[in-house]
Amino acid sequence: MNSRSQRGFTILELLITIALLAILLSVAVPSFLSAIQNSRMTASANDLVTAFQLARSEALKRKRPISVCSSSDGATCGGSWEQGWIVVIDDEDAAGEATVSEEEVLRVWGSLGGGATIAGDDAADFVRYLPDGQIDIAPGVTPPEYEMRIPDCTGDKQRNISIGRTGRASAERVECS
């Protein structure tokens, strides 16, 4: 007879371990995915707020109008906010429309990804900061506000980005609407 002892796991021990692991993963994975979505939304909202803060700072520093606008190509204004946005030195044409040349683009942000959207009742295609750091809006007009959300938004995964009349931008975590 062989006097060496056998070492290893029995089938029952392996099945119990696999079952416990499956239960643990079924609880942990959805929470982890939710945390990732939350983190992406926070980062995207902070990127948009950063763009507004950069534009305000540059307008004050350069004593010139600076705009943040949606951009589909990273070089000109146009497209949707989901495709990306740019901060540009703003030269108005005779009609008061923003004109941008490539050498006037100060910073570029890419698309949101993940199916996230940016919308809002008062969401403008661009926000122009005046040389005094305030936004260029007519008296009595509501300052722009943006709602950033993911598809099938639930809980507090929506972010509202608002800009005050003085030009200060802020992001707030709110319940999905």
From TrEMBL:
One of its GO terms (biological process) is protein secretion by the type II secretion system. It holds the Pfam family GspH. The keyword Lipoprotein does not apply. Residues 45-167 form the General secretion pathway GspH domain. The chain crosses the membrane at residues 12-33. Residues 157-177 are annotated as: Disordered. Keywords: Cell inner membrane, Cell membrane, Membrane, Methylation, Transmembrane, Transmembrane helix. GO terms for cellular component: plasma membrane; type II protein secretion system complex. It is a single-pass membrane protein. It is found in: Cell inner membrane. SUPFAM superfamilies: Pili subunits. Belongs to the GSP H family. This is Type II secretion system protein H. It comes from Wenzhouxiangella sediminis. The lineage of its organism: Bacteria, Pseudomonadati, Pseudomonadota, Gammaproteobacteria, Chromatiales.
